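User: Here's a chain of 126 residues. Predict its fold as tokens.
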Amino acid sequence: MGVVVEKLNGMDIEEIFSRIIDAHRGRVGSIIVYMGVVKTSSSRNPPLNFPEDAWYILNSEIEGAAAKYMTRRGILELRIYHTTGSPEVGETVIYIIVAAEDRGSAFDVARKLLEDIKMIHARLST
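Assistant: Prediction complete.
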């Protein structure tokens, strides 16, 4: 399936896992999920806040960042689900799901993709 970037709207995580496993039957060795939750922020680390009107720009930027990781050996699928607007403390704002043949690749890509998304956020927020 490649790269999927969607709004976070009542997703069913078990259904997503099943779809990933079915699409890559016999190859998936690991699915890593990063779930970002808003904590009390500091001026140094504000929460990810994506304006509704920036949705299409944001998706394009995230898809571009994610696509470069699809060429990595063992990476099977990347899914990013995120909110828009001003999130409240305790609210889930992003899921990054990485399916790979091995856990090392999955963890590495999840961490790097999160950092890329944070840089996109910083750039679009200015």
